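> example.struct
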């Protein structure tokens, strides 16, 4: 495992080097993949907290286990309507708030 030897690092420079400058197609694509991965992990954690299997959640939304697996692994992003069905199927709701 590589470390940074406890040096202070400007992570914007690291991200620029690895994924391209902010606003470039490469960086946008990397950010979209990161958001898909994060969304999948949020759904996976919520599903596990609801004590549901992927198959059970899939059935509740009219899909199957493999679809839920692909979402949880960040391979696909559900449409907004599907995201709401998933959340509702786990007995959860979504709250939006305006920043102060």
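> example.seq
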């Amino acid at each position: 495992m590589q470390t940074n030897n406890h040096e202070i690092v400007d992570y914007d420079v690291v991200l620029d080097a690895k994924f391209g400058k902010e606003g470039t197609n490469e960086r946008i694509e990397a950010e979209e993949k990161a958001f898909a991965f994060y969304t999948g992990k949020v759904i996976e954690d919520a599903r596990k907290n609801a004590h549901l299997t992927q198959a059970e959640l899939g059935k509740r939304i009219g899909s199957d286990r493999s679809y839920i697996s692909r979402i949880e692994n960040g391979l696909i992003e559900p449409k907004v309507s599907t995201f709401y069905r998933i959340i509702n199927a786990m007995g959860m709701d979504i709250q939006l708030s305006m920043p102060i």
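> remarks
Residues 11-89 form a domain with the 434 Repressor (Amino-terminal Domain) fold (CATH 1.10.260.40).
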